[in-house]
Each structure stands twice: as C-alpha cells, then as structure tokens.
Amino acid sequence: MNAMLETPELPAVFDGVKLAAVAAVLYVIVRCLNLKSPTAPPDLYFQDSGLSRFLLKSCPLLTKEYIPPLIWGKSGHIQTALYGKMGRVRSPHPYGHRKFITMSDGATSTFDLFEPLAEHCVGDDITMVICPGIANHSEKQYIRTFVDYAQKNGYRCAVLNHLGALPNIELTSPRMFTYGCTWEFGAMVNYIKKTYPLTQLVVVGFSLGGNIVCKYLGETQANQDKVLCCVSVCQGYSALRAQETFMQWDQCRRFYNFLMADNMKKIILSHRQALFGDHVKKPQTLEDSDLSRLYMATSLMQIDDNVMSASALTALGGGSSADVPIGQPPPEAGRASGP
C-alpha cells in the first residue's frame, strides 16, 4: 500500500533532477563562453608622443567598444579551438620565394619573401620583417592572411621560418630555434638590408616572435638602423616572471602549456637524428637521460629549463641576454641562396 502511494511521486523527482541538470549545463555554458562579460573599449597604455597620437588618430577602432560575435565571440578559448582546428574560411595563399641562409655553425635558416601587390599609399619602399609565434612558419594560416593583407597594401614581407619548424626542411646542424635566439632573424634582416638598400623596415613579431624581435632591436643600436617601428603582438615580455603562471589552472594556462609542450616534443623528436644522433658531439651538459626526460615532459619548462631566461626584458632594459646555444659563438650570416 505504501509503495502504491509513493510511486506517483517518482516522476516529479526525476523532473527535478532533469531541470537541475539542464540548469547546471546552462550555467557552465554561460561561464565558459563568458556571456555575462560586458563589452567595453580596450585599455590603452602608451607614452604620449607624436607616433602614439598619430596611431590613435589613424586607428579609431583602438578607442571604440569591441562587440564580438554572438554566442562564442566572448570566449578566447573557443576562438582558439575553432581557429586552431578549423582555420579560416577561404584562407589566402600568397605566393613568395623561399630563401636559404647558411649560418656559420652549419645551420640552414630559411625565410619566405613576398613582393608587394600594390603601390604603398605614401609611395615608399617598406618591408615588413615578420617573426611568427612558437614553432610557427610562413605556411601557417594566420601568417598567410597577414601577409596577403600587407601585400595588397603595398608592403614587401619577409617571414622567418623558425629553425626546425618546417616539416619538409631538415636540420643541418644540431640546433633548433629557442625562445630568445635572434641569429636567424638577424640574418634575414641583414639579407633584406643588403638586397634592398633603399627599403625601410617595419618589424613585426607574434607571441614568441615578439620576444625575439624586441630582443633583437635592444641588443645593439645598429639593429635599429632603417627601422620605422616595431609591432609586438601578444608578447610575454618577461618569460622568467611569467614562468609560474604556466603551471596555474586559471584560464586553462596549464592545459595550454601541456599542448605547447606536446607540440615542441613532436618537433624535437621529428629531428631526433640531427639532434641526438651518434654523429652529434654532445657537450658535457647533455646526458643520455635527456631524451627519456623529453618523452616524459609535460611543460615547456621541463623541455628546456634555460629557455625562460631568454627574455626580451634583458635587451629592452639595456642588458645582454643570457640565451646562447651551448658551445657556439654567435654566428654571422653566411651565404644566401634562393630563387
């Protein structure tokens, strides 16, 4: 009798559980997509100068409220996932020539050169020297899109391919790109200056590339010759001070650190013969256990404990960087070749 009386109450209980589950899912979606986050103009930090005033006048969007796309536009995580996996719709494919520069230590640095498709608005010869983000190169979609837009606005573009990042280019010395090594970027800039003596330079760096270009400009006064300005996009200015944030779960930082480390491991292991082969003369600091440690690494710091010392702050502050690959003097650009 009691069972018969309690049976009608069960559907109501189940309905309550369903409503609670739906409410929980909606709450998670709202939080993950930042739908409650208000839109506002960006916070601008700049030195009051003629250049800053010119940029603000020329780019009024910098002072206007940014209204992102509906539903997913307020979440940088969703945008990163969609762009990283799906890419752009109808991404452009600019045509350029690949150049090869032999460094003095035997490494082969490459960069792609794209000529302008229109006359510049002021009629000057201006070249953008571009350094991509970590493990990136000229074939990445965001670089292709940027280069295509720059070409159509009258800019010549030279895009560095980080040493070891291109899947079809083998390493010719036991060395890869690092967080702060400016040798390959400097060789590309010197090639542009010699090939186009009348050109002026706009230096552009994305993420890790922003660290490299700022460090390059701050190393010596001569590196700033013919440079009109430098644009650093999404750069971490002090990798050493930011190192502890890589291990935090807030904003999925630790997850992104794991993904970047996994990508770095894949690139390093794809060049294992050049980097860890029997023909490589290993310095005393490189032990046989390093390769097994690499397999087990889950963060960028575990892959290279010294990589975080190569901060642009050391150069921007007038000091010298401590980042020098083991046992090699800074090489000058050797011979350049290409079509």
Task: State the main characteristics.
339 residues; alpha/beta; Rossmann fold; seven-stranded mixed sheet; 13% strand; globular; monoacylglycerol lipase activity; glycoprotein
Describe this structure in words.
InterPro entries: AB_hydrolase_1, AB_hydrolase_4_sf, AB_hydrolase_fold, ABHD4. This protein has 339 residues and is an alpha/beta fold. Helix content is 38%, strand content 13%. It contains 13 helices and seven strands. It has a seven-stranded mixed beta sheet with strand order 6-5-3-4-2-1-7. Strand 5 (200-206), helix 7 (208-219) and strand 6 (227-233) form a beta-alpha-beta unit. The longest helix has 23 residues, at 10-32. It is globular. The termini are far apart. Residues 283-287, 305-311 and 318-339 have low confidence and may be disordered.
* CATH top level label of the domain at 94-239 and 310-337: Alpha Beta
How large is the radius of gyration?
25 Å
Class by helix and strand content? alpha/beta
Give the full name of the CATH homologous superfamily of the domain at 94-239 and 310-337. Answer: Alpha/Beta hydrolase fold, catalytic domain
User: From N to C, what is the helix and strand string?
Assistant: HHHHEEEHEHEHEHHHHHHE
Mean model confidence by pLDDT: 78
Number of strands: 7
Strand order of the largest sheet: 6-5-3-4-2-1-7
- Helical content class: 25-40%
Low-confidence parts: 283-287, 305-311, 318-339
The shape, in one word, is globular
Which fold name corresponds to the CATH topology of the domain at 94-239 and 310-337? Answer: Rossmann fold
CATH architecture of the domain at 94-239 and 310-337: 3-Layer(aba) Sandwich
